[in-house]
């Protein structure tokens, strides 16, 4: 079982409230939470019969608990949330909440296609212990998801959510970028505290930082691939799939950025790009889970239709880690 | 209430089993159903409070029943299925089944992201009266949805489905084309009877027709925009959003194609393109529902986050109909 | 040497002025040329030293002359025009003009990036014997090539051209679709007689046919892959790379379409798709030239940076022909 | 007239050979030039009659000469090179060479579609005074421009070029990204010294830096929009259209990055994004030239088909500058 003191001890050396946020964000001015920091988007472990393996989930959390994360993202894209039933989504969050120490943030993905379903899932996520929700853009009707529609959607969700809302744009999955003008408008909502942007266009991230600078609005990079660049441009953290495998290194990169050690940060950043691409764009969650198996976590199978890696892919995955000195 | 005799009378003049299928498909050779013909993908009517309005649904079905459709598609993209709960999806299909005559086909969308959920929804759809299921490609993890993954997915669904399966590729929504080689492999499955292709690339449709010619496999165009071309290349019908508004005209186009009146077919086809684009790509379901209101059906509002049309958009929609002589 | 009588004899059986154009186009009403028919976009033969081999060009033309083409396209994308100097472009057209009979049309590609250069090349093409020019959209600054810019460009070219102008949209090469509204505007210009559309979106082709129906404006399909569909929707011919290899078959497909033998047309169309894709999208001009070598023409090498096929690609190319009964 | 001493005085305070290159690149180890620094890609001024206005060119160069640039890029995409004849391309470079001091680098764009033409243009560029050439990827046949073809192309050019070669990838214009594996292979060529990457994907830029770290290979950002991020990841400079307008500010951003003043750099970077987007992606060269008119340079018209800005666009352009405090 993961004890609060383990998480606390993992946080040594980083006095977040002070140095972290170069943009002068301060809690207590109407918005409810400081989300700055690193988050692994935790995977959902499945047993061989495709059922959620809550025991393995707790084991993984136990190991992740030794690292100085700001919190955990549960039911992000990496969590295979589209493959879970509503009750599974809630149960996973509930279990994570139970074993997480209270000084960590639990960001739960609550996005659904309809506004109403998203509101209901958001409320339920709050009830099972989420500290904030991360709401992916609806996207099936992306041809009609213009700024106006998305502003209506997120405003409704934020109005009715008992906990803060984080916007979530992930075009590789959704085929849709949350437009900058919509983000700027939404940043003024008192219950919308920030955004996770997984698109990798740091000029866009910088523009969002710039145009929301008068709001309490925090931007998280959606991948370690562009984490250093995002920090350099005013982002305050990242949700990084690779942190499920190389969590210490991702946190080290954070620390190097926050303490202005940019040369060392650059060296580390460069060595993380290939393994990160391998566990995201190149081999997806099957690649991430395979790497987790190698690094002492439980990866295990994905739910269908996601397939396991071929042996050739597995070898290529290994090279992406070993050629950068991680294996 | 819609009586079977109304549907039957609507079918006058078309002896489908004989002339329809130029590719020589014959039922009873292992595959269970002839899907050739025109289908409106019915919309889901909502009341002002966003609840499904089953009364309006029945009214619409009553009017659609006067037309010589082969059947109805329920819970396609046009049906806003991603905005419905699982029980709503099933209830809508159940209601349609109750009021539809038995000689019409009820194709129900049962696609979900996970294979397991798709199987379960498929079985349930059969229980509430669907004659076949139309299964959209899973797509959230489209980077990993290669032919191998999709073949596994559809094979599993088809193996376990008590009713025939129709593949459904709709890249405008999913960002994913079901690869031709996967279609060819899947066409050999005894419980996979055909495909709806909404991509609009008729060269691809022709290639699929060509490479599945030795199978009992039928291709439906996913839009009236390329219906004539699809017939000319060996498709056997279409699932056409515009048929919710100009159903008689879409059926007339079918008849002209099936009876070889290509010049008249061309003239009609050309006049249907702009209104069709208007109620699909250009203005989406809100455009379709608005047009339904004009043409004696109940359109009504969409569920959020889909927004109603602006007055400027509504005017442009009207021009797309009036400039082609339909209003 | 290719004699006029050979070309004339090749045209047996097709009374083009009468039956060809279902849209009622008639020459002499202000526009200068009827472009209806099939054209091979001729390749530019290179010797081993990469110089243009004019002898081989004449040999190819001699063989093409036995087929009932409406004419030849010279300096289309298939002609590797971007790899030729201006004087080579003109010399090739001049040579083709000298050996072609005068009842055939010589459509010469004269597009350049700037309007001024396009005008100059157009005038020069007329001087060396082109009957009409085919002008590709400028595209390097595609972000600024909106309808207004393209209308200005083509209007200027058409105003100053001594010969008729054919618009040419080829998004696979240019990343740019000539917008439908620009086409409609340009169709009213007395010196713009038609368009070659290589995009493959037959709904778009149909829309262009429909919206220019009151003009003397003719649409050519840019590939045999969608030739039948284009005819069925009102196009009047095609510029077909595959006609450099299977010219008789492409002309046969034309005749079947023009004479309303749609079932036979469909069968032939389906067998042409894979070889066509092989010599265009899949293996490009190197594939086309390799196939020409097989079918009695001179293909030879491409200019660098285009590379020859690997032996694996060559084998795949062969299968695309043999599996459809052409080898 | 621009005197060498003006350029020299403009370079005060930056000892480039020492601190600039964090990656340890040192000249003299086989490669011939250190390209680290900032470059404006100079525009080509046209008179009202569309002729090149060499007088205005010299005036612009005079003003640019007061700024601490590493050199000038001539005939980049911003220079409207596709609209110039070969002799104009060379004459412009020759004129720039004549008025530029010898301690500045003149990088001349010499890319053409064919390898042979690129070689010839490269040799000619060297003859008229270019210090290095910047070679855009050939792209018209992008479907065949795989790594193998591009490696052949660039190797041939670099083998035959009397001056160093800089690779140039600009997908917004070409629709083609020079693949990372091709860059890595080409980085080993003794006459290929670096790359300009205009794609804006800094994860890709970082990966290129990382995988070429054992070569003398320098990466330049192709836009100021991601200049800070590129420096932070190991790039050594930038070719920045905005430097034609806000050259002092771009050089200041360089200095802040090179001296580790990342907070001040971030503030400046953020204010440069909107004006940069305005003069590149949003309004293109017409926007850049309009802004040059405002800032004391000669912008003037573009060659057709590029059109001037509408008054509404001009106003939006102005806001992008004024809202960031630059007007």
UniProtKB/TrEMBL annotation, chains A, B, C, D:
GO terms for biological process: glyoxylate catabolic process. The keyword Lyase applies. Catalyzes the final step in the metabolic pathway of hydroxyproline. The gene is Hoga1. The keyword DNA-binding does not apply. Its main location: mitochondrion. It holds the Pfam family DHDPS. It is found in: Mitochondrion. Its EC number is 4.1.3.16. GO terms for cellular component: mitochondrion. It is an enzyme of class 4 (lyase). It catalyses: (4S)-4-hydroxy-2-oxoglutarate = glyoxylate + pyruvate; (4R)-4-hydroxy-2-oxoglutarate = glyoxylate + pyruvate. CDD domains: DHDPS-like. GO terms for molecular function: (R,S)-4-hydroxy-2-oxoglutarate aldolase activity; 4-hydroxy-tetrahydrodipicolinate synthase activity. InterPro entries: Aldolase_TIM, DapA-like, Schiff_base-form_aldolases_AS, Schiff_base-form_aldolases_CS. It comes from the Eukaryota. Homotetramer. Belongs to the DapA family. Keywords: Lyase, Mitochondrion, Schiff base, Transit peptide. Pyruvate binds at residues 78, 239. This is 4-hydroxy-2-oxoglutarate aldolase, mitochondrial. The active site is at 168 (proton donor/acceptor), 196 (schiff-base intermediate with substrate).
């Amino acid at each position: 079982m993961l004890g609060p003191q383990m998480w606390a001890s993992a946080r040594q050396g980083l006095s977040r409230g002070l140095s972290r946020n170069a943009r002068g964000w301060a809690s207590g001015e109407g918005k409810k939470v400081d989300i700055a920091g690193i988050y692994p988007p935790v995977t959902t472990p499945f047993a061989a019969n495709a059922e959620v393996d809550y025991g393995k989930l707790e084991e993984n959390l136990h190991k992740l608990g030794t690292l100085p994360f700001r919190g955990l993202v549960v039911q992000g894209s990496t969590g295979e949330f589209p493959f879970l039933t509503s009750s599974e989504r809630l149960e996973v969050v509930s279990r994570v909440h139970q074993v997480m120490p209270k000084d960590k943030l639990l960001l739960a993905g609550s996005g659904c296609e309809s506004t109403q379903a998203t509101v209901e899932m958001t409320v339920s996520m709050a009830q099972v212990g989420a500290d904030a929700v991360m709401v992916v853009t609806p996207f099936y009707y992306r041809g009609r998801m213009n700024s106006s529609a998305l502003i209506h959607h997120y405003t409704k969700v934020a109005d009715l959510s008992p906990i803060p809302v984080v916007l979530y744009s992930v075009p590789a999955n959704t085929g849709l970028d949350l437009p900058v003008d919509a983000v700027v408008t939404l940043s003024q909502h008192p219950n919308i505290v920030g955004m996770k942007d997984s698109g990798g266009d740091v000029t866009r991230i910088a523009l969002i930082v710039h145009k929301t600078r008068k709001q309490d609005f925090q931007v998280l990079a959606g991948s370690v691939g562009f984490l250093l660049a995002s920090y350099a441009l005013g982002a305050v953290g990242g949700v990084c799939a690779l942190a499920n495998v190389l969590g210490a290194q991702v946190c080290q990169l954070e620390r190097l950025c926050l303490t202005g050690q940019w040369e060392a940060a650059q060296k580390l950043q460069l060595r993380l790009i290939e393994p990160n691409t391998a566990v995201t764009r190149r081999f997806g969650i099957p690649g991430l889970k395979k790497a987790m198996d190698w690094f002492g976590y439980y990866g295990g199978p994905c739910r269908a239709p996601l397939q396991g890696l071929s042996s050739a892919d597995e070898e290529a995955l290994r090279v992406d880690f070993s050629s950068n000195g991680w294996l």
